Amino acid sequence: MNEKGKLIVISGPSGSGKSTVVNKAIQGREDMCFSTSVTTRSPRPGEVDGKDYFFIDPQRFQEMVERDELLEHAQYVAHSYGTPRAFVEQKLNEGLNVILDIEVQGARQVREKKKDAVLVFIVPPSLDELRRRLVNRGTDAPDVIEARLQRASEELKETELYDYLIINDDLETAAREFTSILTAEHCKVPHRIHLLKDF
Amino acid sequence: MNEKGKLIVISGPSGSGKSTVVNKAIQGREDMCFSTSVTTRSPRPGEVDGKDYFFIDPQRFQEMVERDELLEHAQYVAHSYGTPRAFVEQKLNEGLNVILDIEVQGARQVREKKKDAVLVFIVPPSLDELRRRLVNRGTDAPDVIEARLQRASEELKETELYDYLIINDDLETAAREFTSILTAEHCKVPHRIHLLKDF
Questions:
Q1: Are A131 and B177 in contact (CB under 8 A)?
Q2: Fewer CB within 10 Å, N or C, chain B?
Q3: How many CB atoms lie within 10 A of CB A44?
Q4: What is the C-alpha radius of gyration for chain B, rounded to an integer number of angstroms?
Q5: Does the global pTM surpass 0.95?
Q6: Cβ distance A71 to A138 under 8 Å?
Q7: A91 vs A34, A36, A180, B26, CA distance in Å?
Q8: Are the beta carbons of B165 and A121 separated by less than 8 Å?
Q9: How far, in Å, CA of B45 to CA of B176, rounded?
Q10: Is A163 within 8 Å of B140 (Cβ atoms)?
């Protein structure tokens, strides 16, 4: 392949439907992949090392942090998670676009470590609609839903960290917008100017 | 309409097929228009004032230059041409995307006067292909073709002035890229963040 891939970070409040949007947008495309994270937690039944996660011990994780081998990392409950830089770079060099589905704090770390990453924020059309979706999903107790809404409201204040904003009102439109962002990023002059060397 | 339009500047060597690409991309779209230029030349038979051009006298043209009422202007042979800022702003405020088909020098002026303009450079896949297209067109003498190729080669050195580069190898792909650029630009956070005010 001639062109290097792009690293695409997606974030969005729980209930924004970001996974649905992205999965629809990349359906059938062979130039896309998701990043595989490292984690210090143990594999769950059926999880495959190198596919679902790279399972590593806390000492190796700490080493990766110190050697700046992670594009971003975070702690959830008792375990650490991170995005291995070498894995991402390898995929990009193969011409694959790599999708990283992470939270705002992680996105900020990627923004600092990888200037040409593309940051996409996917939000629901309103907090009312978000509440409706969370209620309809039926998986959360009312106090959990309120906490999620509060969190979403906080996350939305970070929108300006991102390059693009997709408002997921209509799935078709949102998926088309995601695809267009990817195409447009590949048309950017710094990404493409090397193709003019034949002139 | 909620969203303001975008000003899209397109440039490209003669024979790059940029008009064909853009016309295909905007076919049937009601959110697009071309800018109408002012000129000091006389109307040709059938040309309509305010549609093909705004026909003005040299004194008024000079006044527009002095009052910074033109986004860009240039002289061709004995006549002056320019892009009226007020006309463009009015269309943008109506939510229309405005296309400006101008040369590199004009694009540079627009870049300076309108920071959020989107500059797209459309090129043929190679100079050999450009020569082939110009020969097949059959409208230019060999020395004119050589001059055009020389000029194209000069223009290509200005690619870095632009935001996006479309290599018009395949018309469908090039038109899809143009459409994607337009969609992606509307998704940019500064363009769209006001839509979150309802949150």
A1: no
A2: N
A3: 8
A4: 18
A5: no
A6: no
A7: 10, 11, 21, 35
A8: no
A9: 36
A10: no
Q: Which domains are seen in chain B, by residue range?
A: 7-198 (3.40.50.300)
Q: Is A54 on the interface with B (CB under 8 A)?
A: no
A84: region left, alpha or beta (phi > 0 left; psi from -120 to 50 alpha): beta
- Rounded to the nearest integer, the mean pLDDT of chain A is 94
Does the interface predicted TM-score (ipTM) exceed 0.90? yes
Tokens of A93: 């060099």
Which SS3 state, helix, strand or coil, does residue A4 take? coil
Checking if the pLDDT of B166 tops 90, the result is yes
Residue A184: its chain B contacts at CB < 8 A? Answer: 164, 177, 180-181, 183-185
Contact A187 B198 (CB under 8 A): no
> What is chain B's mean pLDDT, rounded?
94
Distance from CA of B101 to the nearest CA of A (A): 18
Alpha-carbon gap: B94 to the closest alpha carbon of chain A (Å) = 22
Mean pLDDT value across residues B175-188: 97
Segment A150-165, tens digit of pLDDT? 999 999 999 999 999 9
CA distance B65 to B59: 10
8 Å CB contact of B167 and A195:
yes
Q: What residues of A are in contact with residue B196 (Cβ under 8 Å)? A: 123, 156, 159, 165
Torsion, Cα of A18, A20, A24, A26 (10° steps): 50
Contacts of B184 in chain A (CB under 8 A): 164, 177, 180-181, 183-185
A 150-189 residues with CB < 8 A to B: 153, 156, 159-160, 162-167, 176-177, 179-181, 183-185, 187-189
Listed as ranges, residues in chain A with pLDDT below 70 are: 1-2, 198
The Cα–Cα gap between A186 and B141 comes to 37
Per-residue tokens: B76 = 């061709």
Amino acid at B192: R
